[in-house]
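Task: sequence design from structure.
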């Protein structure tokens, strides 16, 4: 197949491409308007039109006071950067100037922009359908399907970021009424009164981060919140990048059944039939809860998001997502990126996951010697709620009682200390008397 046939192989609308570009040349203020309407490089399928679009974007940045494009300057700049021949030469630019007939109006722009987004969506669908057919396995096919869904939604919706004051106020009133009727707290309860009273519970779109040094109770607190949520009918997706599924269930059974961890992990030390019955009873109860556990190895932010979306679609929504924990999530690092950048991207990605899924996301982070999140300060910025588990030490370095310090709380007071201590035997934080 030759190059011209390849160009014509996918859906495109040359009239719409030329018309929108012509409008932009005659009125440069329409360029940012087109971008706000969802027009980007991928909306231009023909190489010459894409080159002109990029040239117009650069022209407007270079001459922000120009109302319209000066063709002589545009030709000169294109000749200097070597793109003039790709555009089709000076004649093609001059022809394009007068291509759009009639007045230069926003209504015309919106019409052509909608058509270009439609063509872009059709190209995405056709391209990814081929990729799905050629996928190596079902996991890759699912990832591609998710990619296609996101891309198609973005291509078709256009400008949806802004809300009118009417729409924003209506949304506020609806949420306020919902929160008012929610009971004692507007958000999802953590099951720990001290935390609920300080925060008002976990709200939609919030990122909760539990910080602690190694083996100081991060997982315990996250599993305690998980256990309380599912026991109250909340659907929770738990992603473990460290513990295996059996370890997670062991801790949940210990917490839910009030059974000492040692009785489960070392059953020969406590062979009582009564203990076995309690373990079986707690396990059977746990099996009925709306909980899913993913302990897959090498989990990335993308794989977590993909599985969360699958579960949301399967069950009609999620009430809480728990990821244990940030520093073990596999990130994508560019050639010039640092580990700090990689961790910051993961933290920011989890915040965006909370917003896109419409539920709180809880995760953990390790603390350094200065009791700050390891490897990236961006974790503090991304968090809506930041809880630090600190252990006091005596003069001999022996750990004393734990306490939970509120490092950040968007809907409450920061800097407070919650009187909670870790009871490792029963996998829970309890009130310190």
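Answer:
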């Amino acid at each position: 197949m030759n190059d011209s046939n390849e160009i014509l192989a996918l859906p495109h609308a040359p009239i719409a491409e030329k018309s929108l570009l012509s409008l932009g040349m005659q009125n440069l203020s329409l360029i940012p308007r087109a971008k706000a309407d969802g027009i980007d490089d991928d909306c231009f399928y023909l190489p010459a039109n894409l080159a002109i679009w990029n040239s117009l974007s650069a022209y407007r940045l270079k001459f922000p006071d120009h109302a319209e494009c000066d063709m002589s300057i545009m030709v000169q700049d294109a000749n200097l950067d070597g793109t003039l021949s790709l555009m089709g030469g000076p004649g093609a630019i001059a022809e394009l100037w007068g291509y759009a007939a009639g007045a230069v109006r926003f209504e015309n722009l919106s019409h052509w922009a909608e058509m270009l987004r439609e063509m872009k969506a059709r190209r995405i669908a056709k391209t990814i359908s081929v990729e799905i057919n050629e996928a190596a396995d079902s996991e890759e096919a699912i990832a591609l399907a998710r990619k296609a869904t996101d891309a198609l939604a973005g291509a078709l919706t256009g400008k949806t970021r802004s809300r009118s004051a009417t729409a924003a106020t209506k949304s506020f009133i609806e949420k306020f009424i919902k929160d008012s009727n929610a009971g004692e707290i507007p958000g999802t309860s953590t099951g720990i009164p001290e935390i609920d009273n300080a925060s008002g519970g976990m709200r939609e779109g919030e990122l909760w981060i539990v910080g602690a040094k190694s083996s100081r109770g991060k997982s315990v607190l996250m599993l305690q919140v998980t256990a309380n949520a599912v026991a109250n009918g909340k659907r929770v997706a738990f992603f473990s990048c460290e513990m295996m599924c059996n370890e997670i269930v062991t801790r949940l059974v210990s917490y839910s059944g009030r059974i000492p961890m040692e009785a489960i992990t070392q059953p020969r030390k406590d062979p009582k039939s009564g203990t076995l019955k309690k373990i079986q009873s707690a396990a059977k109860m746990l099996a009925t809860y709306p909980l899913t556990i993913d302990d897959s190895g090498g989990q990335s932010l993308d794989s977590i998001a993909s599985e969360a979306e699958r579960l949301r679609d399967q069950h009609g929504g999620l009430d809480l997502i728990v990821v244990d924990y940030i520093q073990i999530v596999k990130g994508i690092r560019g050639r010039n990126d640092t580990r700090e950048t990689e961790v910051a991207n993961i933290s920011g990605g989890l915040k965006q996951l909370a917003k896109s899924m419409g539920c709180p996301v809880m995760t953990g982070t390790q603390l350094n010697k200065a009791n700050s999140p390891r490897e990236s300060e961006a974790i503090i910025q991304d968090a809506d709620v930041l809880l630090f588990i600190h252990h006091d030490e005596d003069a001999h370095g022996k750990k004393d009682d734990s306490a939970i310090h509120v490092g950040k709380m968007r809907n409450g007071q920061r800097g407070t200390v919650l009187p909670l201590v870790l009871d490792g035997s029963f996998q829970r934080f309890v009130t310190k008397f």
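Residues 347 and 379 are 6 Å apart (CA to CA).
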